[in-house]
Each structure stands twice: as C-alpha cells, then as structure tokens.
Amino acid sequence: MLSISLLFLIGLMVVLVAASTMFYLHVYTKKINRRLQEGPDGNRKELWSPFRFCLTSAAVTVLILVVLLLILVAVSDSRNSNSNDNAATTNCNFYTKEEIEGISWLSNYSMEENAGYTRHEAQDENFRYTCFISEEPYDDMHPGFLVFIEYIGAAELSDFETTCLYGEFRFASRPGASGLGAGGGTVDSVVCFTGNAAQFEGRFTGTYGLFTEKDFEQYQTEYEKAFKQDTIVDELDYASVTAQFTIDFDYLFGTDEMEEENAIFAIN
C-alpha cells in the first residue's frame, strides 16, 4: 500500500513540475515579447529563466513529497499498530491451592514439570515463583502460561486474614491496560495465575497481596476517606507482603512462528 502511494506521489510530482513549468514558459514568453515591443526599460524586474523556475519548482515539490511521505509512514505505522492490537488475544485467571485441586483440567498441571512448557523459577524473601510458558501455539484448551506463587515468608500464614490478586495486560504500542482483579480472597499457601496471549505485544503483570486484619482495617479507613474526596487508593499499598511478576510477550507468541524467547518471565 505504501509503495503504491509512493509511486502515485512521484508521478504527481512529475506532472505538477511539468505543468507548472509549461505554464511559466507560456507567461515568460508573453512577457518577453511584450518587453521587446515596448522597448528597453531599466526599472523592470528581472524574470527567472524557465530552467531556474523548473529547478525551484522541482525542489519545492520534492520537499512537499518528503513531508507527505512522512505523514503516510506515520499513518501506516499507526494503522498496523492498531490492527495488531485488535487482533490480540489475551485472558487471565487466578486460583488458590484448594481451587487448583478441585478443577479437573488445572489439577493436571504440576509445579514440577509440564510437557510442552518451559519452566522458570525465581524467589524473593516471601515467595517462590514457578512459571511455565507454553512452547505450543495458542489454543482454547491449554493456557499459554501458568505461574504458581508459594508463600515462604517468616510470618505464619494464619497471621493473614485476606488477599487480593490482579492480572493486567498492557500493550507496548499504546497507553491503557486491560486486566482482572479480585479482593477479599481466601488465604492459601499457593495461588496460580493462568492466562493466554496470542498476537499480543506487551507485558502481563501479576500481583498478589496478603493482608493482616490490621492491614485491611487501615485500607478500609483510607478507602472511605478517598471515596469522599473522589480519589483512588491502591489496596496493595497496605498489604504486609506483596508478590509481583511480569511476562513480556512479543507479537509471535502463541502463533505458528513462535520461538522459545517470545515470552520472558521476571519477578519485580
């Protein structure tokens, strides 16, 4: 499409330069003939030669052509970017250990090894992360990624009263995000994020927070204040411990052309 537009603009440039030069040549000839009939006049303004006019006209037209090409490229990139975004498939869910064991398809996945998936492991002070990223193209029956988050912190799990979880896809090509969040969940030793991505270029961020009773009461107090002031409070700011990971996807992940490094896992 861009090459056709380029050829059209070049052709239009040639036509415009030729037409303007022919018109100027006609005007130039009439003025020269008139001056020859009127006789010499020292105060007359010097006329551009047709050759000089042709070169100047061509230079101005080329400049305009370059500007138009830059606009075309920008519009083309924007359309391609929007087209890619619209074609993207993304989804995510999260489950506690109890839910994992009760869901038939999910209970078939292990924290140790899963056929057709590449395993990644990381750890921080409070959590152990085990990530599995699919090596196969996207399909509705199998998740593109699974991330198990296991609590290993010093505090007793019974010290926590509630949890919140968030999963967010953010496109690399434009602002804004789409995702899923849940609060007030059951405290469990393991949670699992599952999701899928295909023809999506950007980042998925998974966040998990554990709240003591005091944490949650403080959050509720601040939330009520913020609600009256029409502002927003991030509940994760009040969690005693927070786990967060990211997976960076490129456009080929989930497609037939996907490779091993089309998705990169990391913890924050």
Write the layout of secondary structure elements.
Elements lengths: L1 H37 L11 H38 L1 E8 H6 L1 H4 L9 E7 L3 E8 L10 E7 L10 E10 L5 E9 L4 E9 L3 E10 L1 H16 L12 E9 L13 E5 L1
Antiparallel strand pairs: 1-7, 2-3, 3-4, 4-7, 5-6, 5-8, 8-9, 9-10
Summarize the structure.
With 268 residues, this protein is an alpha+beta fold.
Q: Helical stretch count?
A: 5
Poorly predicted parts: none
Computed over alpha carbons, the radius of gyration is 33 Å
Instruction: Name the overall outline.
Output: elongated
Q: How are helices and strands ordered from N to C?
A: HHEHHEEEEEEEHEE
Helix proportion range: 25-40%
Mean pLDDT over the residues: 84
Q: Give the neighbour order of strands across the main sheet.
A: 1-7-4-3-2
Work out the strand percent. Answer: 25-35%
Oligomer: single chain
Q: Note the main sheet.
A: 5 strands, antiparallel
Structural class designation: alpha+beta
Number of strands: 10
Span from first to last CA?
42 Å
Defining traits:
single chain, 268 residues, alpha+beta, five-stranded antiparallel β-sheet, 5 helices
Characterization of the model:
The chain has 268 residues and is α+β, with helices and mostly antiparallel strands. Helices cover 38% and strands 31% of the residues. The chain has 5 helices and 10 strands; from the N terminus they run ααβααβββββββαββ. The strands form 2 sheets. It has a 5-stranded antiparallel beta sheet. A hairpin with a 3-residue loop joins strand 2 and strand 3. Helix 1 (2-38) runs antiparallel to helix 2. The mean pLDDT is 84.
